Amino acid sequence: MASGVVNIRRDVDDKFYRYRVPFELSLSMPILNTKIEGKGNGIKTVVPNMSDVARALSRPPTYTTKFFGCELGAQTSFDEKNDRYIVNGAHNAERLRELLDVFIDKFVLCGSCKNPETELVILKSGRNEDIIRNCAACGVQSGVDMRHKLTTFILKNPPAKSKKGKKGNKGDAAAGVGGGGGGQDDADGAEANGAESDDELTKKIKAEAADLNPDAALANEDWSADTSPEAVKQRIKALEGNMANVAINGDDEGSDDDANSPYAQLGRWIDESRDEQDDPKAFAVAIYKKAEELGVDKKHKTLIILAQALFTDDIVAEIQSYGALLVKLVTSEKHQKSLLGGIERLVGLAHPDLIPAVPKILMGLYQIDVLDEEVVTTWGTHVSKKYVDKETSKKVRKASEPFLKWLEEADDDDDDE
């Protein structure tokens, strides 16, 4: 069965929504499946991939299993050593998936911003204990319904504490730490590879991108702002709208996770407009103007959405067609990292059959000068859970090895000369 993903919040109908969990059978992130065993009074429902689903939510599989038991009025049992999680009785997969949505709403999603990037924390006040969802996305602490039977189980089996000193590092989900999907903003490669986080890497912005390729027709397009009085009024109006978004989202860049953010709007616009465009160069200009209209033409997060929305399974050829647009948008190290993150999501989640083509994709981006050697080398050698789950990140980076080897050999040749 083909692999795929579904939003952690299944009520969000947006394929650019960042937080996702398994939908169909996949080697890396399968959907919650069930297997009925036994007969009569001994019949039981085994969830063979409970660990994988719980890991996507950064919650222990014992929590989700126990929750099913509480909701269904059934006994549960777990054998963590052998990775077996059982709910007594016969229950179909769809019913358990519906209950999983309820679990996500009650014990994963932030009570304020509804993002799943949370960790459970137990707060003690005298003899009382409360369970709090501590959100890394918006910083709000929201409580859970302490009347639910699962809270008793959580208090008796508290989540492991997250490691200190690592931004967004929620630890291993199977240990019960943190929240959010495979795309959460934790440190690049922090857990097992000792990679630096974005905050620890250099913040220096490189010089403005070189002039657009004179051979490209796109270079002749007018990228400058219209200074007519009417155009100025329109830009002021757009700026006011963008400032409203800033107030709502709580940061100066908005969020690429919000279905109503300018990033998501840009992604949907590209997706809906692609079939109407016959000329890639004209479409590139239209994309830039749309990003400018939404106020995200200079934001590095724009590249995450652009990579997913613009490119298809013919990405190697499309890089050349849209090269001038990429050169115009990629103006810093952060932009390069976001572009690579978007490529990770494209080939790792949407088009896993493209993973063998990663060296050609990187070569295409390198040849149009939107990737620096140091940035792509660091990216390729440090696994990260920032944009996709860890296993997918490993696969994509493993596939990049031929390109990284070519870079290293090219450096050696230069040194010899």
TrEMBL record:
InterPro entries from the UniProt entry: ARM-type_fold (IPR016024), IF2/IF5 (IPR045196), Transl_init_fac_IF2/IF5_dom (IPR002735), Transl_init_fac_IF2/IF5_N (IPR016189), Transl_init_fac_IF2/IF5_Zn-bd (IPR016190), W2_domain (IPR003307)
Top-level taxon of origin: Eukaryota
Region (Disordered) location: 155-199
Molecular function GO labels: eukaryotic initiation factor eIF2 binding; GDP-dissociation inhibitor activity; GTP binding; translation initiation factor activity
Domain W2: 256-417
Keyword annotations of the record: GTP-binding, Initiation factor, Nucleotide-binding, Protein biosynthesis
Annotated Gene Ontology cellular component terms: cytosol
Any one GO BP annotation for this protein: formation of cytoplasmic translation initiation complex
Keyword Metal-binding: no
PROSITE patterns: W2
UniProt cross-references to Gene3D superfamilies, sorted A to Z: 1.25.40.180, 2.20.25.350, 3.30.30.170
SUPFAM superfamilies the UniProt entry points to: ARM repeat (SSF48371), Translation initiation factor 2 beta, aIF2beta, N-terminal domain (SSF100966), Zinc-binding domain of translation initiation factor 2 beta (SSF75689)
Repeat listed as a keyword: no
Matches recorded under SMART domains: eIF2B_5 (SM00653), eIF5C (SM00515)
The family this protein is said to belong to: Belongs to the eIF-2-beta/eIF-5 family.
Protein name, UniProt field: W2 domain-containing protein
Source organism of the structure: Asterophora parasitica
